[in-house]
Amino acid sequence: MKVERIFPGTVLDLDGTVYLGDALLPGAKRTIETLRAAGSRVVFLSNKPIQTRDDYAAKLTRLGVPTAPDEVINSSWVFTHWLKQEAPGAALFVIGEPPLLAELDAAGFRLTDQPGEVQFVVASFDRTFDYRKLQTAFDAIRAGARFVATNADPYCPTHTGGFPDAAAVIGAIEGCTGKRVEVVVGKPSPITARAILDCLQLPASECIIVGDRLETDIRMGQEAGMATA
Questions:
Q1: Residue of 7, 46, 36, 2 whose CA lies nearest to 166
Q2: 15 is annotated as an active-site residue
Q3: pLDDT digits (tens, 9 = 90+) for 92-149
Q4: Are 122 and 96 in contact (CB under 8 A)?
Q5: pTM assigned to the model
Q6: 15, 126, 139, 153: which is the annotated catalytic residue?
Q7: What span, in angstroms and rounded, lies between the C-alpha atoms of 38 and 116?
Q8: Do residues 10 and 42 make contact, with C-beta atoms less than 8 angstroms apart?
Q9: Which of 13, 126, 153, 165 is catalytic?
Q10: CB neighbour list of residue 205: distance below 8 Å, 6 or more residues apart
Q11: DSSP summary character for residue 65
Q12: Burial of 200 (0-12, 13-18, 19+ CB in 10 A)
């Protein structure tokens, strides 16, 4: 096969594109090695906010794709940097898992479950989501808190089918409050697109994004001016 062009920047989605569960997909390792050898800077992208950049880098390395944390962009990292610019030190009620809470805490945000103190309700992927958390979000939003989210994926693909993702949490909060989520920073948001280009230090026209979802990966790439696959 003739290769028409190697892009200086390559953005690869992770779940369903590079790996599924704990196994690389066929051809992924060879493709990444070939791109790197050709001089393309490869970064990995995930909307899943239940692991840190360090965790993703360690997993890829363990699977045979040596990766540094700064070669990974995920929605929790993008969200934390966006909110630091939007409202540094704000009081948050976060419906999310421990890695996201730890990342926000380390960034100087105050985590609280007292509705009257909450400035932002943060919806995310949370496998411990329950009625108590929904009630707190409901009370905080009715008291004036802003409603934002890390990502809006309906599910995360796994080798057994998938896990319900942040869209389920967003839907529950929207359903009881009547308030639409204000900002979602994960794919296909231009907030994530800007984070990618800042990381690569390249114009969009010099980058290609490869993913498994038209509504997130491909839509974001097209709207940002990147090539897509």
A1: 46
A2: yes
A3: 999 999 999 999 999 999 999 999 999 999 999 999 999 999 999 999 999 999 999 9
A4: yes
A5: 0.91
A6: 15
A7: 55
A8: yes
A9: 13
A10: 225, 226
A11: -
A12: buried
